Structure formats: structure tokens, C-alpha cells
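pls design
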């Protein structure tokens, strides 16, 4: 199923716009460690229609919590990687596209605890990891807001499609709490607002942690007031010891499923998700490991990095280890 959008939820580049974006992106990719201010001239040259659409979306008033850009160039590609954390596209134009988009929305960031602080993440199946609930898997990945355990969760994430799966069936699934909450009872909404939930670290943050995965919390799942309602939720890791709260989580998952939009991304499609409004997931697909498997690239954007966090960063744009900031919020 293709995403059914209104005009305000989608921007399709004209050929001339795509050429301009690629020119700017290839220049940006050479400045991979640059700060937002270093990219200022390139950001100002982004085609005005696309730039305005992205800035408008960044204001956070979307009811769907997702924005789709179509017609982006992806350049010449090598085979889809087979190894976890491979870096075959260093200084590639698609790196520059994600840098520029993330810096228009806020600031491109990474996490020291995740993938050693990589700013651009490769999303593709890895042999032996097909059943993992993360970017290296191929199984269904249920609804979650990104890095639910973290005090500095991304405000936005971008997923740029380089290759579809062979059968063109793998969907990026997006579900907005601003639509789903209407399907919940007043009692369920009240329960989900209570700070009685905890969220375990995702596997991408805990690969090198011995023993049980740590968890953050207690925290609420819903916060803010309508129409500006927000969500902090991972159907795989968010739990509560309270049976009433567990029942409310189940109701939320069912409501998100009811309002979900399935987006079968094609090469050159970039879906941007407001990480506080919409949960996202992935449907299952079958990898062949023949060099032509599904391949997306992911980036995170944060509207404002706290000054104290900046001073603790060991590398530009990479947020400090959780062990150093746990308890700050």
C-alpha cells in the first residue's frame, strides 16, 4: 500500500530541483564533520519549495507526524553491504542529502553509545541477524519512537531509500498518536499519562553491555495537551508493573495499528518522521544477500542540543555516553 497523503504531507522534486540538491549534497558530503553554521550557504541554496516544506514540517504541527520527499537522486551505488556497520558510502552524495535535511530540521546528531557515534546509519539485512529487532534485521519491527530510553531523543529521523527489497513489499509503517488517541478511552489516556512506565535500552545501544539490558524510567507514555499531543513508546521495550498500565499499552498499540500508514519506499524517497508525534516500524521481507537487498540510510535531527551536552561531546554532533548524563533529566 502506498502512503495516502495530502499535498502538505509530500513534496516531489522536479528534475531541475533534484540536480540542484545533488550538486549541494556532494559538496556537503565532503564536510562530514562540519557544524550547521559551516553548511549555512548550502542550506540557503536548497530549492526554495523543498526548503520551505521542510521548515514548515519542523514546526511540529503535523497531525500525521510524517513528511515524504520524492524524487531525490541517489547516485551510483555499490552492492548492498552484508556486514553490520559497514561504511561503503563515505562522502557519497546521499550522505550530504541527509546532512542538509537534518540541519534544516534542526541539527544532525549521533549517539556515542550507538554505532560508535555514526551520524548516518546503514539500514539493511545482515546475514545471521535477520531476526534482530533493529536495522540489521528483516523481520517485522513493531511501533516505536526512536531511542525511547534516552533523555535526548531525536526530534526527527529521516529514512532515505537507496534500494527496495526484491519483491517491493517492505513497508515503513508510520502511526500518529494525534490520530490514535481518539480511539482510546479517557481512562486509558489518563493511565498513559502517568509516570509508571519504563523502557529498556534498544539492542543497538546494548550490544556491548553484559547481562540484562538496562532501562530508563519511570516515565509517561503520553504527554502534552491536545492538539499538541506527544508520545514516548516502544512496543518491544516499554512496560509497566501495573496491570492497568499494561492494558493501556496494549490498547495504544491497537490504536496505532488502526491509524497506521504503510509506505513502500522507492529509491529516491525520503520519509521524515516527527519522533514525538509518530511511532514507526517495518514490515517483514525476505533478503537474498545477493548485493541487491533493501538498503535505506538513516539520520537523526535534534532541534536544540543543550549547551552542557555540547561541552561534553568528544566529537562534533555526537551526544555523550548515557553513563555520563544519566539523571540529568
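designed seq:
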Amino acid at each position: 500500500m502506498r502512503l495516502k497523503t495530502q499535498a502538505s504531507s509530500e513534496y516531489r522534486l522536479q528534475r531541475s530541483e533534484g540536480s540542484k540538491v545533488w550538486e549541494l549534497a556532494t559538496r556537503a558530503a565532503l564536510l562530514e564533520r562540519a557544524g550547521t553554521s559551516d553548511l549555512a550557504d548550502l542550506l540557503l541554496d536548497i530549492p526554495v519549495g523543498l526548503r520551505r516544506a521542510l521548515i514548515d514540517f519542523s514546526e511540529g504541527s503535523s497531525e500525521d507526524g510524517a513528511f515524504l520527499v520524492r524524487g531525490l537522486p541517489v547516485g551510483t551505488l555499490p552492492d548492498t553491504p552484508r556486514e553490520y556497520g559497514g561504511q561503503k558510502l563515505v562522502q557519497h552524495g546521499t550522505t550530504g542529502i541527509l546532512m542538509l535535511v537534518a540541519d534544516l530540521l534542526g541539527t544532525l546528531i549521533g549517539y556515542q553509545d550507538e554505532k560508535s557515534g555514526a551520524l548516518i546509519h546503514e539500514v539493511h539485512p545482515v546475514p545471521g541477524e535477520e531476526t534482530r529487532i533493529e536495522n540489521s534485521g528483516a523481520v517485522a519491527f513493531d511501533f516505536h519512537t526512536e531511542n525511547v530510553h534516552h533523555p535526548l531523543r531525536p526530534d526527527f529521523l529521516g529514512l532515505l531509500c537507496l534500494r527496495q527489497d526484491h519483491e517491493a513489499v517492505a513497508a515503513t509503517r508510520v502511526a500518529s498518536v494525534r490520530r490514535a488517541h481518539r480511539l482510546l478511552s479517557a481512562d486509558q489516556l489518563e493511565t498513559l499519562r502517568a509516570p509508571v512506565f519504563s523502557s529498556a535500552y534498544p539492542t543497538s545501544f546494548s550490544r556491548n553491555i553484559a547481562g540484562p539490558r538496562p532501562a530508563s524510567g519511570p516515565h509517561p507514555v503520553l504527554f502534552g495537551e491536545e492538539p499538541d499531543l506527544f508520545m514516548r513508546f516502544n512496543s518491544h521495550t516499554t512496560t509497566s508493573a501495573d496491570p492497568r498500565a499494561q492494558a493501556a499499552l496494549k490498547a495504544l498499540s491497537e490504536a496505532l495499528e488502526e491509524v497506521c500508514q504503510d509506505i513502500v519506499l522507492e529509491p529516491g524517497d525520503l520519509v521524515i518522521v516527527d519522533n514525538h508525534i509518530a511511532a514507526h516500524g517495518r514490515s517483514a521481507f525476505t533478503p537474498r544477500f545477493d548485493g541487491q537487498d533493501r538498503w535505506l540510510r538513516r539520520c537523526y535531527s535534534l532541534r536544540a542540543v543543550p549547551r552542557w551536552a555540547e561541552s561534553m561531546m568528544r566529537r562534533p554532533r555526537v551526544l555523550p555516553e548515557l553513563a555520563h548524563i544519566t539523571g540529568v533529566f
